Amino acid sequence: MTNKLESKAFLEPGTFHFVKWKNDIRKAEILERRICEDSSNDYIYYVHYEGFDRRLDEWVTPERFVRAVVTSSSGATPAKRAGVDEEATDEGEASYQSRFPKKRKLNDGGSVKGPKREDALEKEHEKNTKVRNIGAAVFGQYEIDTWYYSPFPDEYKYLEKVYFCERCMKYMKMKETWGRHMSLCDHKCPPGGLVYESGRNKIYEIDGKLNKLYCQNLCLLAKFFIDHKTIYYDVEGFIFYILTENDENEEHVVGYFSKEKVSYDNNNLACILVFPPYQRRGHSQLLIEFSYELSKKEGKIGSPEKPISDLGMKGYRAYWNKAILRLLKNCKGADVGIGSVSESSPFSVTPPEADKIITEDHEDTLQKKD
To answer: Does 305 participate in catalysis according to the annotation?
Structure first.
């Protein structure tokens, strides 16, 4: 067991150690440390497991360290090894930045920001978001463990929980305050207009300019589960589509997607999230299909904004597979390709995306045959 003196001598931020994780032992980098607030007054350490997504980062006690400091297996910088500007998936995929190029951003004058400015902003973002600041979000009937950092005010730093009202999206620090608010809140559904209803599900269209506080708080909650989301407060240029699910008592917000009011790249979706308790129920497919129906109504060929996160890519891949198979089934003629499929559908599949879908599906097919 590592004692307190050894903790101070060896367990420094930026060093690597072997750490117990469930029934396994993993190499991890210490990103930050702080004094534990219990009677032991010992250090606890925030670690990133090398080769795994940042959503698995966590605070650990000294007892879980099983070996002395080790060197990294790669020559990457500590930030990259920690998955801050390179997002490795659970399967150890290539870095996030190498899979998706950075999207160019415009400054106030309309010109493209230079590489140095982009790099400076990226480094600042990495520094400020590498440590998850709040442990869990209480949302409706669920207490959800957070995955990533979210830019809450400083007084919320290192809170064990933050409490959200799923009706109006206000957030609170204290359970008692949240309980009083929930007993008084008279909101029955998200603000905005109802644009879709089928069975237990409804979708509401919300203008970020008209319902600014609601959308800002929604983005803060969503950031707990989306690593590379950078829009928190500037919501006026977006439309939000909120998906709800009815039970016997009330409507529950299960997910949403946002869309730019004006997109010069014909993006029909900027950000999509289904909250963890409601995932794997087909909600993401409904939101994605609805975004393409909006494109069809506008008479445009739509596409999601790049880059797409690893979980977002899984949802889109499943949707594209089904949609393309439906189109191929109805196609008449021998010559059918990605171009003709894209032209005859409301969605745009660019060559890199198409190649990825076809290659991975082909590999899956070969594995099933073997």
So the answer is: yes
- Measured at the CA of 21, the angle between CA 16 and CA 24, to 5 degrees, comes to 100
Query: What is each CA distance from 342 to 290, 296, 338, 359, in whole angstroms?
Result: 17, 12, 6, 18
The secondary structure of residue 49, as a DSSP letter, is: E
pLDDT at 67: 67
Residue 23 lies in a domain: yes
Domain total of the chain: 2
**Residue 20 structural domain:** 4-105
Residue of 143, 305, 353, 360 marked catalytic: 305
Model's pTM, two decimal places? 0.71
- pLDDT single digits (tens) 3-44: 444 444 458 888 899 999 888 899 999 998 888 776 566 888
HEC per residue, 88-156: CCCCCCCCHHHHCCCCCCECCCCCECCHHHHHHHHHHHHHHHCCCCCCEEEECCEEEECCCCCCCCHHH
Residue type, 149: Y
